[in-house]
Design goal:
single chain; 2 strands; two-stranded antiparallel sheet; mainly alpha; flat; 271 residues
């Protein structure tokens, strides 16, 4: 897996209806989608969730290739989760397969399929949020949504700012890592051969300059914020003011309707 396959935190500019939605609306729609994913209990519910996700990807024009490339780092987690569910889910009735200390039931295969679909669609929808929303807009949206927590002294602005900086620095650090690896490979470094311990030792010369670069960038960012008289969110003005529009209301109704539809489909008892 190449480092360029890690696309978390990247923003793909566009002028689609998904890009033009208020970032607060997109965050709430992702919340609705995740709730619906965990509520779904049968094939009809997951089919509906898949149709909605496919339509959102098509509308955003981000493309399935970008989503698939971003999913590469978590393939091993998805496969591991599926195997655990197949092998360790208890079932009723006759087992399908029995070998060594493992017994596979129909319920295990069913649970594994649903779990893989759930994880895949959950990660895909969160990727779609970051692909269609800039980190600055995400920060403003989170701060506005969590605004009521300021009354109980929760540092909402600082939390949103840290999340925005973290998202913004992920692509930068990945690019920096790629450059350091290329430079060290040109000097004879080998990151691919050997056993697990040897590969871990080979990463030490990579991690040291990467950490130094990350701390240097963090220090430069802190100095830049101080030079611009940054003092937190109190009294801070914004270039772009967030305002709900008609399309945002329709989108929120669609998200709520999705949760209700999945809840109703659970009672049909299909698969």
């Amino acid at each position: 897996m190449a480092l360029k396959d890690i696309t978390l935190g990247q923003y793909f500019p566009g002028d689609t209806i998904l890009h033009r939605l208020d970032p607060r609306t997109k965050i709430l729609m992702v919340v609705f989608y995740i709730v619906a994913l965990f509520v779904a209990r049968n094939a009809l519910g997951y089919a509906l969730m898949g149709v909605v996700l496919t339509a959102a990807i098509q509308v955003s024009r981000v493309g399935f290739k970008a989503i698939r490339r971003g999913m590469k780092p978590v393939y091993i987690i998805i496969v591991f989760t599926a195997v655990l569910n197949v092998l360790y889910t208890p079932g009723q009735g006759e087992p399908l397969v029995t070998f060594w200390i493992f017994t596979i039931y129909y319920e295990g295969i069913r649970t594994a399929i649903f779990m893989v679909l759930r994880i895949t669609m959950l990660i895909s929808c969160t990727f779609l949020l970051t692909y269609t929303t800039s980190p600055i807009m995400l920060t403003d949206a989170l701060e506005r949504l969590l605004g009521p927590l300021k009354k109980i002294k929760v540092p909402v602005h600082e939390l949103a700012m840290m999340m925005s900086i973290a998202l913004r620095f992920i692509p930068i650090l990945i690019e920096e890592t790629d450059k350091i690896m290329a430079a060290q490979k040109a000097r004879g470094a080998d990151f691919e051969t050997g056993n697990l311990i040897q590969k871990a030792k080979a990463l030490i010369p990579l991690l040291v300059p990467l950490f130094i670069s990350a701390f240097r960038r963090a220090d430069e960012l802190a100095v830049a914020m101080e030079c611009r008289c940054y003092h937190g969110g109190e009294g801070r003005t914004r270039l772009r003011q967030l305002k709900y529009q008609g399309r945002d209301i329709w989108a929120l109704c669609l998200g709520f309707g999705l949760c209700v539809s999945v809840f109703l489909l659970n009672h049909l008892g299909v698969f």
